[in-house]
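Case study 2.
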Amino acid sequence: MSLVHNQFNSPWSEDRIGTLKTMFFSGETYAKIAIVIGINRGAVAGKVNRLGIERPPRPKLSPEEKRAKRTAYAREYRKRNPDIIKAIERRARLKRLGEDAERNRRRKIDSATPLTDLRLLPGDTPAHERVHIVDLNDNHCRWPYEGLTFCGRKKARGSYCEHHAGRAYF
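Prediction:
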């Protein structure tokens, strides 16, 4: 059995090809064209390739215009995705806190001042309330501190107390 191209079964009518060309030359993306025509993006890309058409060259933007375009896009992205932006900013803040702690650890510090108490955040467990690994039980928070000690508060979510779960599962 041989496969013969049947123009009547083709998804590409003259109207669709006209719409494709009009939208393509106006600068629309393959995805938008596909939505309007009602087929998938790959079919649009394939038809453009088979037709041998090319987009007209885009005008070159100056560095100031490029920067303005990027800034506008970033501003719009921040408006549409506030939760993602908050998570990214929180990760960056926690990373900075970690780098500060590492920097402090490398400094020569008076032995009377334990390192862990230098960077205590609000809600952290003070050194005298922490639980040593030997005394740790199933209900204790597993947030680690130096010297084989852990937070030791009552677990709330997963392996951590409410305070440390907020930091671990942001």
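Residues 73 and 144 are 41 Å apart (CA to CA).
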